[in-house]
Automatic annotation (TrEMBL):
UniProtKB keywords: Glycoprotein, Hydrolase, Protease, Signal
InterPro entries attached to this UniProt entry: AB_hydrolase_fold, Peptidase_S28, Ser_carbopepase_S28_SKS
Top-level taxonomy: Eukaryota, Metazoa, Ecdysozoa, Arthropoda, Hexapoda
Pfam families with a match to the protein in the record: Peptidase_S28
Family named by the database record: Belongs to the peptidase S28 family.
Name assigned to this protein: Thymus-specific serine protease-like isoform X1
Gene3D superfamilies: alpha/beta hydrolase (3.40.50.1820), Serine carboxypeptidase S28, SKS domain (1.20.120.980)
Amino acid sequence: MKYLPVFLALLVPPAPAAILEDIPGSDEMDIPAFVQTLNQLHRGPPLPPSTKRANVETRWFNQSLDNFDDTNKSVWSQRVMINEDNFVDGSPIFLLLGGEWTIDPSSITSGLWVDIAKEHNGSLVYTEHRFFGESIPILPLSTENLKYHGVEQALADVVNVIKVLKEEDKYKSSKVVVSGGSYSASMVVWLKLLYPDVIVGGWASSAVLEAKVDFSDFMEVVGRAYRQLGGDYCYDLIDNATSYYEDLFQTGQGAKAKKLLNLCDSFDENNERDQWQLFSSIANIFAGIAQYQKPENYDLAQYCSVLRNFDIDDASALSKFVQWRFRQQGCHNPRYQDTVDYYKWAKINHNGSLHLSWFYQTCRQFGWFQSSANKNHPFGSTFPATMYTDMCHDVFGSQYTSAKIEEYIQATNKKLGGKHPAVENVYMTHGALDGWSAVGSDSATIIPQASHCSDVWSIGPTDSPALRAAKERVIELVREWLA
């Protein structure tokens, strides 16, 4: 096992030289508009700026490239961050699992999990998921190499980290509790399912459990958030404007829509897939805002006010709002082929981007393709799940047919239990206005008006009674698990 102090330069494996074929921009590629919007839905749970100073050490743990093939002797180094400021020998290990993001020391220097760890003199250990951040097991990120990417491999990595830590004298008698948010909350549940004796309990904030190809319910919940917290006028504005632009495309007036939406010349208004990317990007912009909204700050009400103030005309207001959110000069260009080209480029040219790794997991294990198939939302009907399955095929190869992807997703649910995993001592929470809650556990604690991972912050004066109660329940359960 290798370890380095956190203040030393981080070690990153050099990317092998490669030659791009038939993909533009070999030296560098801009992140396409559509991928930018997806990134907003797959960023780590936000934490408030930390006012606490902590000594966070970065260590590197040797891991097997393939945890389930003893004949494969290849190893790689996984990044793990540790905060032992309040640790006393033999006290618990408070494990925080990283998901589809780059880990950061702030996650183990502030927040509710840090507060609980301090009460128990615990050591905070933050693991980075393979194929994200600095924890890249193998390059390039070809389809062949990405076969080593998956939640089962990542969970086995976590088990090995625990095993190595508990070989140290100070941790030999330490109990382990675990926490995560979003996808890493799912990992909390699955860790307890597959390795029930490794941890004594876990807290899963906004765990997404049921793998699903056509995740059409997501946008319904997002729309509900805008209606409840932004007002009927806001919901109707989005609905009216989206319908207007869809009608233009459907009646042969795509050129007019293209001009009004300030789309680039290369956007093909007659290309169905480009239309899919456009309307999905618009929906994702609103979903990304709603994902981490805080009702006590009136976040959605404020964004809806900004939207309305752009123009009295609904269609014009939506166009100006979308351009504002893209934060770029000139036209924007949500083209299907740009997205495919970018992912193909990233397979050969790893530049620290997280997008490809997560997209592979969705194609291979989870789905969760947010479509417009559910009609109970204001984002139109022009982005089917087929858009995503087509991209899986075009990026990862002909074996990724719609039927094969469906087979992969069903296998995930069969192994991991879908919405009803057989686990004990795992506390699951969801925000009532979190789109991801639609694939969460039916037995989770639901926090009214709350969004994604809304309970990961420290208890504060602006917490609603329900939010505070959910946080206090975590504190109580950890005491019980560690008793």
